[in-house]
Amino acid sequence: MGASQPGGPSLPQERRLVTAIPGPKSVELMERRNKAVARGVSTTLPIFITRSGGGVVEDVDGNSLIDFGSGIAVTSVGNSAEAVVRRATEQLQRFTHTCFMVTPYDSYVAVAEQLNELTPGDHEKRTALFNSGAEAVENAVKIARAYTKRSAVVVFDHGYHGRTNLTMALTAKNMPYKESFGPFAPEVYRVPVAYPFRWLSGAENCAEEAAAAAIDAITKQIGAHNVAAVVIEPILGEGGFIEPAKGFLPRIVEFCRENGIVFVADEIQTGFCRTGQWFACEDEGIVPDLITTAKGIAGGLPLAAVTGRAEIMDAAHAGGLGGTYGGNPVACAAALGAIETMRAHDLNAAAQRIGEVMKARLGSLAEKHAVIGEVRGRGAMIAIELVKPGTKEAAPEVAAAIAKACHAEGLLVLTAGTYGNVLRFLPPLVIPEHLLVEGLDILEKAIGQVAGA
Q1: Is the overall model pTM greater than 0.70, yes or no?
Q2: What count of other Cβ atoms lies within 10 Å of the Cβ of residue 382?
Q3: Which of helix, strand or coil describes residue 40?
């Protein structure tokens, strides 16, 4: 086994532990990493990967781990998916870069056409391509400001939007994203979100009361006529996979329409079949004015986009949008391969099946273990919030301990949440069901070990 051997769909779909996690080669590489890489770049699980595909990642020590992370919802089509590799390889052999703003190429246009077709709404649309999710969000704000001639931007409690200066301002969580990095961009305002599990008057009142509180804050503290954009994740990702109470998002959209505010759906983590629909907005029939995408768009290559109403997207002056690498030709080819894979393998249906299996199993675990406060999410974007039994007090130490136990047994899981007390599950949409079930077996054992049988 080694880096010279291919990964991708042909990789054996099995969990295999031949050393402790991390193994000796990973430990050695980690020592090199610590001497060469800045301390601020953290590592969730200190194993070094040589191959990956389907539902597994294989490390330098020959261990094969079940992947419930997908590189944070990036490799939804699986690592080194056939169509992604084929199209990207063909493009690599032709040319690697020209800068679309200098001399354009058709793959950029083709990706834009696909996004204009796939995103919610049948209105005329335009798309601009970038490198990362944070860039997409930042450019969506630029576009909204150019269109409305207003400056204020409204975001929500528990939201995450990136690590650039503006997107740090948009992001709710201080540590580790904002601590010591200010001052931040001005004219950003935060309002309540409908978080059913933690709404004080109960989940049944959450949508109406949270929407009223948010709208009241915008009206009284900012002035709706000053707001360029409202930016929200349809399911809040880093915040803990919070699915806003039904009715909340439609009311916010209605308020935006009434007041000429651009409604921006940040679908960077939720997009491209992750929730069992092409985009999570579709669940409540929401048609955003602008939608930002990245992560799952290109099978692991860096690409992001802003797609939206033609009259809004075209408000920015010529030359006002772009970037040297934005819409790189190899990344565009990979995106066309990823979308081809999603269509050919009906990955929306695959995500729905993953959600059914996971929610059923996790629901039964929640009945046994009071430490699980809530099971939530849609499709292959599922989470459990961990609390001190009998309360809603966050238990981040329990989340960390369960994750550590899972890692030791060969299951890669991620934590999340404003309070650090959420385990989030983002398996590749192509994961075989036997690996999904085996991963849940490991999770059940880990919860039992940490929380008590």
Answers
A1: yes
A2: 24
A3: coil
